[in-house]
Amino acid sequence: MVQTDEVHDIPVVLAKEHDVKPPYSVFTTCEKWFIVTLASIAGLFSPLTAYIYLPAIPMIATAFGKTVELTNLTVTVYLVFQGVSPMFWGTLADHMGRRPTSLGCLFVLSLACIGLAFVPTSYFWLLMVLRCLQAVGSASTLTIGAGIIADIATPAERGGFFGIFTMGPQVGPAIGPVVGGALADKLGWRSIFWFLCISSSACFIVLVTFLPETLRSIVGNGSIFPPIQYRPLLPLIGRGHKDSEVERPPARKSPNPFRLFACVDILNLLVFNGIQYAVFTAILATISSLFEEHYPHLTETDIGICYLASGGGLALGAIFSGKLMDWDYRTAREQLICNSTPENGIPGHIINDGDFPIEATRLKRLPLWIIIFSVACIGYGWCFEAQTTIAVPLVLQFVIGFSEIAMLTTVQTLLIDLVPSQGSSVTACNNLIRCSMGALLVSMIELLLHKIDAGWTFVLLGGICFMSVPLIWLAVRIGPPCRADRRARQTSQN
């Protein structure tokens, strides 16, 4: 029997009743948005704890009697542990569940913030250690959120969900420096960590109350009752879809996330994403010093407000790029079905994930984003050399933020598409590569600025980004055979 799909107006073959497969997720669209919103709020703390700290670096350097360059090491070690710790938490989330690992991360973050609020100014090493612990608690919330989206969203809707999900974490770069600058200016730098402690504790309470478990090895598509320790205090989500008679699926052996680095197509995407993220992190890390040097009339609060430009670009870019990816996916899938349709208009077969050119579809707009990013990066550096009005670098910050989040969302969504069963693990691998590269560049950026000035420094960084364009072509070329090899190995193991 043939019927027309009401949403896309595509003819589909109706399966027999006993062949009908259960939905990928029993959660309604509204319930999915609620879950993604909760994950996005938790993911906010990953960048917030990093960027709320930046405007206060000169003040903290003075308080501890250190140079700004040495104090920037607290940013470097934070990025290092932000990259390493999700490898542990991500693997744990893929095996033990999303809910307990999310709560564990927020608990560690709250404890670290209390310690930072009390750290004596004579113990600079303790500041470094507690910043590392803060990174361990905050960084993995973003990784776990990516795993949640892989649990509940099909490839056709992942782009939109990732767009909204990343908008939450990108509020961190937008409001973090503003809040941090204002708190440091009015109440002192210690108030920053009290703010983080209170807000992370409040988020912990919200997740304990509402967040359901989504890991498919525990709850399947959401229809299986999890053990009591995985249930929220108020189980409002998916309540009408639970089936007490459905057996819990067998526990899945947790794969080693480091094996993902052996996948050439995944490693290629990780390196590409790491290059762009490292440059963007270097731009954010130097905002306070560059603006303080070239616009000396600005206070800490004013410098914090300057971060709103890049933050606004990040927020809008996340929404726009996510919706655009969903549209590209639907368009490509409809075109593929039309091309495989016999003359009578009935599809010859149902398109499956193995037939779909996911790399070409996801990455088709990536060259445009990277060109915009590179050009804006070069222009941003020369603004300071030319001593332009402050409006020019702020506008370019917006463009840089918009194009950066478009690239990040695109690559992250594709990574989840490639290994959906290891959503948190592959996101942890992404964090490890990009944060390691970011930490390396942040540790050198002040030296570059002093040696060759801002203009040529950002020409160098923009040029490196532009030279990574061939990696996009490589991803499209090697992606399908690499996916086929993984499917073959998985089939043989089963």
Describe the fold and architecture.
By secondary structure, this protein is an all-alpha fold. About 75% of the residues lie in helices and about 0% in strands. It contains 19 helices and 2 strands. The protein starts with a strand and ends with a helix.
Number of strands: 2
Number of helices: 19
Q: Spatial order of the strands in the main sheet?
A: 1-2
Overall pLDDT metric = 82
Low-confidence stretches: 1-19, 344-351
* N to C succession of SSEs: EEHHHHHHHHHHHHHHHHHHH
Outline type: globular
What structural class is derived from the secondary structure elements? mainly alpha
Largest sheet: 2 strands, antiparallel
| Overall helicity | over 70%
Overview in brief:
Helices cover 73% and strands 1% of the residues.
Topology at a glance:
Elements: E1 2-4, E2 11-13, H1 29-43, H2 45-51, H3 57-64, H4 68-71, H5 73-96, H6 98-118, H7 124-138, H8 140-152, H9 155-187, H10 190-210, H11 216-219, H12 264-285, H13 287-294, H14 300-339, H15 358-363, H16 366-386, H17 391-418, H18 423-467, H19 470-493
Antiparallel strand pairs: 1-2
Observed structural traits:
mainly alpha; 73% helix; 1% strand; disordered N terminus
